[in-house]
Amino acid sequence: MVSGTREKKTGKIRLGMVGGGQGAFIGAVHRLAARMDDEYEFVAGALSADAAKAKASGQDLGLAPDRIYTSYEEMAKAEAKRPDGIEVVSIVTPNNVHVPAAKAFINAGIHVICDKPLALSLKEAKGLEALLAKRKDVIFALTHNYSGYPMIRHAKAMVKAGELGEIRVVQGEYPQDWLTTALEKTGQKQAAWRTDPKRSGAGGCVGDIGTHTYQLLCDVSGLAGEELAADLTSFVKGRALDDNAHVMLRFKGGAKGMIWASQVAPGNENGLKIRIYGTKGGLEWKQEDPNYLWYTPFGEPKRLITRGGAGAGPEAGRVTRVPPGHPEGYLEGFANVYTEAARAIKAARSGKKADKDVAFPGIADGVAGMAFIEACVKSSRANGKWTKL
User: Fold this and answer.
1) Residues 113-140: pLDDT tens digits?
2) Using an 8 Å Cβ cutoff, are 347 and 188 in contact?
3) Does the reported pTM lie above 0.85?
4) CB-based contact 241:203 (threshold 8 Å)
5) What per-residue confidence (pLDDT) applies to 10?
6) CB within 8 A of 133, min separation 6: which ones?
7) Distance of CA 299 to CAs 279, 288, 302, Å?
8) How far apart are CA 46 and CA 363, in angstroms?
9) Angle, in degrees to the nearest 10, between helices 211-221 and 150-160
10) Cα–Cα distance for residue pair 194/206, rounded to 1 Å
11) How many other β-carbons are positioned within 10 Å of the β-carbon of residue 221?
C-alpha cells in the first residue's frame, strides 16, 4: 500500500478532514487554526455523514471533486493509495465517530488530529491507545486547545521549575449558560448531539467541558489524578446527560483539588479558570482574559505576567505570535496544537523525532480524560463515593 505520509518529504502538510461540513461549528475553527501558521494544505474531506451534504460542503470549500468523500472509510482507503494522499486527518465529529475514524486512518498509516473527548468509553479509548502502541510511525494529537495558550505554557514551566514549591491545591471551573433551557429539543445541532448518550458518551457537561478543566489542571500542575468524588446533575427536565458537575479530587502525592463545570449557569459564556497553589506561591489564569497570568509568591505582592511582556519565558514565547497588548486567544490556542503537531509530522517525514520543546496533548491525555468521565459517572451514581481513577 502506498502511503502519502511516507512519500512526502518537504512543503506543506497535506490535510484531510472528517466532519466539519455545512452547519458545523468546530470544523471551521480547526481549518482556521491549521492555516494560521501556513503549515497545512487542506486537500480532502469526508465532511458529513449525509452524502449530499458531504459533497456540497466539499464544493463550498473548494476541494477537488475526486477528493470529496461520503465516508471516512472510503477516504482512508483512497487517500492511502494516492502518491499525493493526505499525511494527516483532522477528526471533528461527534464523539461516537472519533475512535472508529481514527482507527481507519491509523491503519492506513495516516497521522491523526482528533477533537476531544477522545471516545465514547474508556474501553474504546484504551483500544485506540493499544493500536497506536503498535503503529509508532503514526502521530496522534488531541485538540485540548487551552493547553496551547502562551500563559498556560508559562505557568506549566513555572511549576516544573519549582517556583511554586510542592503543589498542594488545584482548582478549576468552567461555567457556561447555553444549555440553561432544553435547547436540544429545538433542533439546535450542537445541543442535540452533546446531550445524546449515543453520540456523546456517558458524560454531558463533565465530558464536554469538565475534561478540558481536568486536562488543564493536570497539564499545568504536573499532577496525576488518583481518585475523585463527583456529584453530576441534569437540572433540565428530561435531559439524558448531566449539565452540572461538582468534583472533588485527590492526586498522587497528596495534593487536593476541585472542579466545577456547568452549562446551566446564567451570565457565563466560557468562564474557564484555574488556580494552582504550592508551598511557595500561587498562580491564577482565566480563559476569557488569557494574556494575563497572576503569580503570588508567598508573603509578597501579587504580580501580573503578560503574554509577550516582561517575565514571560521562552516556553510562552515560542507559541506567541503578536506583540503584548494585542488580543491572542482561542483560535491561536488551537493553532498552537496544530503547529506543534506539524513540527512532529515534519520530523517524522525523515524518520526523526520532534525537538524536545515540541508539546501537544496526545493519546495519554485522551485516555486520562475518559477515565475522569467514567469515574465521575460511577461516583455520582454511588452518591458521591470516592472512586479510583
Assistant:
1) 999 999 999 999 999 999 999 999 999 9
2) no
3) yes
4) yes
5) 75
6) none
7) 11, 28, 9
8) 23
9) 40
10) 11
11) 24
